[in-house]
Protein 1
Amino acid sequence: MVPVQFELLGQLTVSTAGRPIDPGPGKARLLLVTLLLHSNQTVPHATLLEALWHDDPPASAHANLRTYVRGLRRAFGPDEGDRLGHSPGGYRLRVGPLERDVDRFEAASERGREALATAGPAAARAEFRKALDLVSGPEPLSGLPLTPLLARRVAPITDLWLTVEEEHAETLLALGSAAEAVRRIGPLLERHPLRQRAWAQRMLGQYRVGNVAAALDAYRRARQSLRQESGVDPRPELTALHDDILHHRPHLAGPRGGPQPSPAGTGTPAAAAPDAPPDPHTPAPDPTSRLKPRQLPSALQDFQGRDQDVSRLDRWLDQALAPPGTPMIAAVSGMAGVGKTSLALHWAHRVAGRFPDGQLYVDLRGYNTGGVLPPEDALRGFLEALHVPQNRIPPDLKGRAALFRSLLSTRRLLIVLDNCRDAEQVRPLLPGPGSCVAVVTSRDRLTGLVVRNGARPLVLGVLAPREAHALLGSRMGVDRLGTDPDAADAIVRATGGLPLALAIVAARISEQPGFPLKAFADELCGAAGPLDALDEGEARQVFSWSYLALSEQAARLFRLLGLHPGPGLTVAAAAALAGTTVPGVAPKLRELTRLHLLTEQAPGRYAFHDLLRAYAAELAALPEYAKDRAAALHRLFDHYVHVAHPAGVLLQPQWQSFAPVARLAEPTAAPPADPEAAAAWFTAEQDVLPRLVAAAMDSGFEAYAWQLAWALTTFLAPRGLWQRQKEVQQLALAAADGTGDLTGRAVTHRLLARAYTRLGDLVSAEELLTRALAFHRELDDPAGQAQTLHNLMEVCYVQGLLDKAIVYGDEALPLHRRGGNRSGEARTLNAIGWVHATAGDYGPALARCSEALTHQPPGTDDNGRAATLDSIGYALDRLGRHGEAVRRYEEAIGLFRVTADRYHEAETLLRLGDTLLTTENPAAAREAWHAAAVILDELGDATAGDAHDRLARLDHAPADRGN
């Protein structure tokens, strides 16, 4: 076909070799648009009729459609006869790569996002400009009377264009070109006034060019537009930016310091400088200098068979890597236990050298009873492995997938996507066009992946007899296998060639070197029902054979371990299930691991295969084990609560606690002894505890459920894991509501509200806190009431309702006093002082914070005292008392270090550096900001960028500053 350029980002135009092509009148243009929006797909007649006439086609619609098709074919020319084809169901327009400006636009924008992640804003700006230069009108397909169906199809293109405009503005702001950002974002907001990100960019840009009045007016217009057109208020981020502008907070300053707004906020810059380009001598980071990911787990050393399957994968790889190259996705499917992962890892290690940029691996937990791994979580892991900074990882699945594809487009990587649930789970993780190869394993046949993504199916059956004999020989020795060939044949037939079953049998035989093979063959073949159709039911028979070979105590432990929700458990948890001690359970665990019924992932930590866990749980659910099952679950939850609760108190000693459920038995493990040990314990158990909360709720142990959730939240909240806190507290709230326990209901409502506050759902947070307050009042619990009012104060502060926030704080104070909670009273006094300080009321701020400090003598609540000192330092700095501010900040930093509160230590270091720079001490400012940057980088916090921005501005400041 002769290349044709289709331009949709503006008025519809078509051209070839610079010669315009006239598609014809209005309906013909709508037909072409419909086909372009479904390029290279057959568009059914019914869809075309709806696109042209909506729900009112004329009687001659089909004839008219054929007329428009003939006209388009004539317009394309006689040599383009196969460009617009017909099939029994409709019409199909063939469009070559990048013939549509939309495709070129998307490609350039993805390059921009990749550049932003790897090379910095200057390179990203160049790519975003290439994309935006393709836009030729105010809207995609401007001037065409789009029907509702076409309007729906065009909407994502419009959204993509607007997003790239905003991303471009982001790079302009990062590079100090605030005036240009304001100029470009203005027309966008005139047509799309509900884009809150664009409003934020306009506000920040106006502020940075010194026009504070215009920045504040932009917020007023944004709020007015949002309320009038959608009935919502600005998001918390926009409200917070407005507050930052009102108070001229230092972090708003642009690169190189930027122009400073006038103190009066009149809009006249005190020192306006033109936008400056980035320093051309500053080298961009070289992504090739990074360590390449090498994530493949170890492969089986005694892998046997699958020669034809390996050869097929080799052939597909040769085709994929040979010029011009075609993307390769191998979909390896088969029943559980057939060896999909073993084959994938064996082959991946064989060919790893052909992928110079490394290998990625993830277990997607597709059939794990604890839930599948969300694709956005898998993408985060991959992006981190490719060295994308935390603050540049998009928050949504679509953004992460787009960035991942962009990063892969210039690399040659091998990606193993193991144990996926279905095509939908794995599709966002697939590479786009390029030289990367993906191997996907699943019990599902992944037909959708084959049909829609061109994956090559590789369905694994059971091993052939020769391969099964080789596997047995590699595990138990060829000589042993040769002692009785007939018995060996009988074993292979009985296991049906299922690799997992063969491995279990081989382990059992190896445990009894003196037994003849015939004894094992007779025992296996005598099991109920022949293994002639090896599905999961047949595998269960193999498991039962191995289970029956266990000692009585090991068999009981195997059943009880099926009650644990996974993904892993400790020796102490196993002992709790069994109702014994750690030394007492250890021999049974060793017996299970020897027979491959359990895997020791790390010293003292065990895991089941999915099928084995399910089989063990089925056994435990048998009626004859009902009493043992209920008692074991009770011991399990008791064990975790009485380790987790004291660990939580160690992590958050200032939190209002409660007496946990009474201890059921002697502990199988001592709780952590100090905060460091508590943090390590929660780190190891953070994937287990949410499942235990759900399991306790489902099993009727609701009190344990909400108390485990409270303990886990002491770990999640300080780390900013708000989404996980929300999920676990939603379960906990349902459990507490089920018990009717007022303490549990109050606690869970309040902790769920805190998660909603951090996630920006302030309406839900306020509703939950209101109910929590009612519960605490019914309990006559002044401490709980005071803490809840403190949390309501936080919600109002984020909403910008500063007066209401102070009212809540004032209401909390007498309740703290009534309950004798001097630490809580001091923290609320400090919070009130901070609200006054951020509002510019520095006198009342200092009064409240100074009063707080009298309730926080050294050695009582050091963390709360540190926060108060930080607030005092902030107010003193704003009053120009910089020397006093520095001393307060330094005291706060010392206490934050004593209490291991690294996040707030970093925040105070940033403020200390700001004050030191004001006092003409850039060397000390640099030292403070560098220390903050190190902490925030280690925590992976997005605000690390603030520290690095300050350091960069200092690097570009005049050399004689401070002399």
Protein 2
Amino acid sequence: MVLQVQTSTYEAKTQEIAKQLLAATQENRSFFSSLRDQMRWDDKLLAWAMSNPGLRVQLFRFIDTLPALHSKSEIASHLQEYLGDESVELPAALKGMLNFANPDSVPGQVAATTVGTAVETLAHKYISGENIKQVIKTVERLRKEKMAFTIDLLGEAVITEAEAQSYLERYLELMQQLVEASKNWSAIPAIDEADGEAIPKVQVSVKLTAFYSQFDPLDAKGSEERVSDRIRTLLRRAKELGAAVHFDMEQYAYKDITLSILKKLLLEEEFRQRTDIGITIQAYLRDSEQDVKDVISWLKERGYPLTIRLVKGAYWDQETIKAAQKHWKQPVYNDKAATDANFETITQLLLENYQYVYSAIGSHNVRSHSRAIAIAESLNVPRRRFELQVLYGMGDKVAKALVDRGYRVRVYCPYGELLPGMAYLIRRLLENTANSSFLRQNLENRPIEELLAPPIVKEEKNSLTPNSSLQTPNSSLQTPNSHFLGAADTDYAEEEVRKKTAQAFQNVRQQLGKTYLPLINGEYVNTPEFVDSLNPSNFSEVIGKVGLISVEQAEQAMQAAKAAFPGWKKTPAKQRADILRKAGDLLEERRAELSVWIVLEVGKPVKEADGEVSEAIDFCRYYADEIERLDEGVNYDIAGETNRYIYQPRGIAVVISPWNFPLAIACGMTVAALVSGNCTLLKPAETSSVITAKLTEILIEAGFPKGVFQYVPGKGSQVGAYLVNHPDTHVIAFTGSQEVGCRIYAEAATLKPGQKHMKRVIAEMGGKNAIIVDESADLDQAVVGVVQSAFGYSGQKCSAASRVIVLQPIYDAFVQRLVEATKSLNIGEAELASTQVGPVIDANARDRIREYIEKGKAEAQLALELPSPEQGYFIGPVIFSEVSPNAVISQQEIFGPVLAVIRVKDFQEALAVANGTNYALTGGLYSRTPSHIQQAQTEFEVGNLYINRNITGAIVGRQPFGGFKLSGVGSKAGGPDYLLQFLEPRAVTENIQRQGFAPIEGAE
């Protein structure tokens, strides 16, 4: 069904104005076509990108890499690697240019120079200058053409507090210099005044998130405090200078908190009467119309107008992909026409409220501008309250035509070094070359009726769920569960969710200190010994008292399991799977509360605790699907004979779970054993036994029968060893240290009296995980990824990065930014929303990590050691530089926030160093060199390799997790062969001939 956007009273006028504007912009069109053959290289690159999707992708990837390439031979070899890809059909001119044998050869150098210059020329089209001097020249030229301006500072992503402070200082300096220059500008009535009111000649556009490096909606209060201080400084200075300030809008995650901060700040007495400030609304967001209505209501209350700049939005690809990956609702319209229609709706809304709001309509679509003019003229909107905006280098002809009609036009001018400006350039190139782009359609001689037609909105079938096309695995060899959709993490950008979390903390705090007993044969039983589980952020706080079973009680549990096994084995797989799905639903229902228990008992920050609950839910749902798949077995029938390949449970499983993922790993190992038909005993780590008691409550409520699942907390050295050595144990699933894992493996291999089977051991035993950063890496991305991978949950993940191997050319620059970014992290109690680095698990861990830090000081340079709070088991992040690949801190697993940065001369050495430990769990690579990425995929010895992203946070059914060498034995958790370890395969063959007769399918 197609919903036609209401053709309103403004339509006829819109068409009339649009045709006039289009005629003015199209005068030179035939001339453009005749010039196409003699175009410069930068124009050729754009034209090719428009006509060839494969080339477009590779070309833009190459342009993204260009700033990191420092020599012509590097540029030449990357050109060949990107554009020589088999997927790319090259135009003849480009093919000829890339046909060199050696990047150092003269043809290679020529190719590098030609393309390098073309990209630089392209960048200069969209970037108004590399320094303030060039920008002043640009804006003076614009003013001669009767156009106003707003300046946006391009730069590296703000990932350190030093950069956030520098961002503020650079804007103060920019305003100062522009205002100084403006004293020599003659007044231009068309842009400097309206309705008898002066309009500031200087305007700057800023990004709110760049004022605080740890800006995060979860920490709404902390982010607001830190950002508001810097914004006040900026606004005060702007007032002294007489400059206007406009706030840009960025990613959707920051939208609500950005609007909330600005609304609060601009109601303060000092700023309430200011009208020289603006905010931005993005029409591609589904909730943008409601946002505008809310802002207008707020402006009525404020009593003084502000500018709202309306734009389509620049992060469409990023937003759709993020929502699909997170299983969140799509925040943006999936259809360009829907965005255009919404843009027109909001344009009308703004202009109809002109007494409360100044409208700035930003677009390169002639229809969008014409619509705004038609409405403004029909309503007699005063000129002060309405202007049109374009991006520098994007809508030059449209802008000129609008100026000629007497409208105020403002040009959005980004400025900065071309290097950090590449991300901006690529967004502009994507926009210019997209099939749906007005500028492109206009160049392609589309009929005027088509170009100016009202947007027709197709009804979206599935607008509130992630884009299905973005979730389909791109593989002809799909695993049986390739369409598995995981649980969605909590989106803390939503205020309601943050309130719910705060409420969950209150509820859980009222339950602290309770006693949790073991569950044996369906009964909670008393124990001779109890242990207090403490909050590692504040060890005076007892989370709960846990009863530890004796060896005698362990034997009772074993006998109960043995008795329950025959019945559980016969329970149909579908029934077992449904109990598991019920458990997954209960985990989802109690998500907020379970997250809080994780935060308080093991000191994991809120967001990471929430991700852990998602993982536990995913294990339940994924393994439920998997057992149903495996239960179908395989038929290998031939004429006269049936052959069935089937699975049966092994018997009794002992699960020994760790404290660092107390819910997810305990749940994953346990439910895998249970759903496969095994009776299961769960022995958790002592420091996280309250969370496993909560898991126990859920598994019992879901419907696991007595004796089938038992919760048996106890001392590892006594109860754990007893269960491992028990002759009735069939499977041992363990996650923990290499030392304990190897001991379990050895003990399980010994045949005990009365034992009639070999035990199966599944053991995950940690890693010494490395991230390689090569000279082509995006340093913004690499620094952020390394910081998250090394210091997330204080480095206490099996997958955490404890080594980063950096190539010589960028080593010093990388270490400097890494240190600054780490310094900017907030260290504190895990429950505080601002915390990125919480405590380590207990006093033993703290003391052991401190010993490693002392060893590090003796064998490497200390680049950073951050102080930490006293009241909990805290250790501030520590970075060592110039570390030898064979140093103790490079070889041994530390399991804390300690990072060794190793310098290497080339990529070959980097791989050798990465592979030079006893472990092979996770590894990472930051690189934009295709051959390096290819080589790492084959030669980097790790179970999970992550390229150009952080190396923690594996997702069930997407990144099955586990390693080899001394990192573990067994298959990957959350993968298609994990359950096979809990099952025995059998083949059953039946001869179906009787007296030479056998049923033949299809015969009458």
Protein 3
Amino acid sequence: MKLNRLIQSIALAGLGSTVVMAQDTAVPDAEDAKVERIRVTGSNIKRTNIEGSLPLTVFSKAEIDAQGITSAEQLLMQLNIAGNSSDNLASNGGIVSEEQRGNNGVSGANLRGQGADATLVLLNGRRVATHGLKGRAVDLNSIPFAALERVEVLRDGASAMYGTDAIGGVINFITKKDYTGAEASAFTDTTEAGGGNIYRANLLVGAGDINQDGWNIFGTLSYKKNETLDGNDRAFSNTFQPERGLSPDTRGTPFATVFNRPASQPNLIGTGLRDPRDGLTVIAINTLDLPGGAGCAAGGDNMGPYDERLWSSLSSRYACAWDYPAAARIQQPQDSLDFISRASFKLNENHSAYVELVASKVEVSKAFEPNQISPGATFTPDTWYPSTGAAYDQVYAALANYFGADQLNYGERIAYRWRCMACGPREIDTETTSYRMMAAFEGIITAFDWDYNVGLSRASSESDSVLGSGYHYTDALKQVLGSGLINPFLLPGQRQSDAGMAALEAASAAGVKLYGGESIMTQIDATLTGGLGFELPGGEIQAAIGADLRREEFKFNGDERAEMRPIFNAPFDNANVLDKVSRDIKAVFVELYVPLHDTLDVSLAGRYDKYDGFGSTTNPKVSFNYRPMEELMFRGAFSTGFKVPSFNQLFNGNTESQYTGLDLADPSTCPSGVASETVPGCASIRPVEIFGGKEDLKPEESEQKSFGVVVAPFDNFNFSIDWWEIERTDTIRSAPRDVLIENYDVFQANWIRDSSGQVIAIDRRFINSGGTLTRGIEVDANLTGEFAGGNWRLNLNGSYIDSFKTKGLEILPYSDNLVGEYVRYYNLPIKWKHTLNLSYVKGDWSHNLTQVFRDGYKDELPVSVRNGSYIPSGWNPDVTSYTTYNYSLSYSGFDNLKFTFGIKNLFDQDPPFTAHQNDFAAGAAWEPRIADPRGRAYTLLLEYKFL
């Protein structure tokens, strides 16, 4: 077989956007090449690794190590075709959306912005169990990352190959198949500013030569530790930037804010106080912020003035605020232990068998701001600060001095909003134990000269979340507060009484299990592949046929205590308890490789899936590869895909969540739904939002299209450009609030009202919405050369998102293009991402310098800007781009020892500023879906071979 210039140049480039050869592999002579056929992600047919037309990106272990990447989550953050969604631990560190409830400890893979549940994750070509708490996506933390040999990323839909979930693409984590010897490695990733350090150690041992001894067995054990990085550890994590449109929307402060109450609930300030300045009634008053007071900053760290203009709440002009977003951990502490072992046996020259065990245990702890104590349904008048409290007269005097004693009700309790620093930060600890056991046979059926592969596997992911600090039994907490033992009006340097702290400790609910779940998958699969005996001008037609039988099981348990004593603000999920649900999937698939000519081949594939409860679905795929000349190749594909509803989406019970924003208005009287105190009918509302499953949900469907060109005009230069489009219909999501507003006439029933007509709840349970349309272009370019006796390579890999549109109903037109616009919770569709890498290898030395670029976007509008009431002086609607540089140096000149030293974020670039609302997203003035908060860090990897 002749290798033309195009194929040779791509192979020499190493990592490109097609199937690639390992960098250390020599390219065969163009006339005499005889290359082994292999199977790659996205096809069941074995082909030469230089024939593939699939848009496949491959990362070798050496390339991963050179970048100082220690986890699948870090790899996805650098992968340009990965979406920018809330798929990493930092995005789930504090306040999360309803879609992320139960995502404790989860890192997901999200290709092309289609979501973690629409991206298929494989380990050695086969499925693994989804995470135990939600059962919707695979947790990347359970992947044995240190044992990887390479990672293959299929940038195309693959439902015709693998079934459900493979809409955005496929990520296949591939470990070693055999190993003989012993080696150990140690890695450290230490930040210059402190906090967030990462450590990893790995041991690999193997014995037996599969060809000489007929067997091989190896095992690898890895331990990884991520240390805590708190929001307060980084100066950019600061929401007190009101001139730029960002200020914390809370009046719950470490030095409490005095609040009004209705006339039916007597309290110190009654229904509010008239301001002597202009007669305005104020309802939230922090005595530190009164004229002549010490100022909000005197109340302690992270305290400052509440920006009443920014939040359109002039009645809070004397309130203070506290930087609660900065109180969240921005790198969660993580301890993980993973193990993989594989035993392979050569049965004879044509048949072999292997068994494989993969297991992991991951412990993650998230922590965020202490509970806020506010007067209301829970904290009734008997819990408010009594007149016998030590600080009562002090607060009364400060108020009387400015407002006048005649406005106050001396002797009545003080209603207040307070951040309970004495309670401690709220902490949730999650432990996930995962495993996959697999046995497989593979070989050649000599009578037909066909390959076969048959496997049986069982995988499980079991998780439990437990309350840590910061949570207290409601009845005991109310009693402590009402007694006056706890003083909410302490200044820095002052401390609670021993009796008060002892009472709080006695009320602690630490150690109570929130919930737990387990996702189980059992699979039997078989594939046959070989030639059909029909020769075409381009070669023999190849075929693959197979079957896939799976059982998916899921169970979720909530509060299992015999006595369900209420715990204040504990995020139990009892409404979603599932004793055990399961479904069976039966599938058959076929694939044909048709080489019509030396320059043109076509691949046809189809898969039929039958799901319990959903009927059946058939999904085809057709792709082609056309090489009109030696330097040019065209490729393209069309396929359909599907995604069945998860168990949660089907069977979740109803849960309620209080809407805490100040920007929502009743669309029946305010068509825009944007709250404004100056527009009649547009008063702010804070209804309950109802979330839950629906058993009548239909599967999602999709169409994927792609067309690309690969050009290699010179032996040392090639580039590829691939256009793609994904259109999804009947997408399953919680009913979007903006859709319910914009189409109020259709969704009036979703706005639940009381007898007076006031909105008290919004039904946002899962629906099959209209769909999404996403288009983009991916580019990859490689240039190689020689310099000073060494070899260099320059690679540019980039992703351009041209369109991202949604529609709430099938009958509606698509929305405006959302690319470059801020999107809450889900994928943040920035226009352009790229990595530019320069590598140089000479002898035992190798250097790598990488630029990582993430485009800017339009920021979320602050409430006052959105309703037009106030525009801060420094408000900038544009979030700037984010560029970092990483460098590494490797040396392998020592016997059995190799070291790699690196610097991440070489110029210590901070994440760009963003004013997004922190009641709906993590990140205090920065975006965890885009940026790395750790700053400059130094890495060192040592690898030593004993045998």
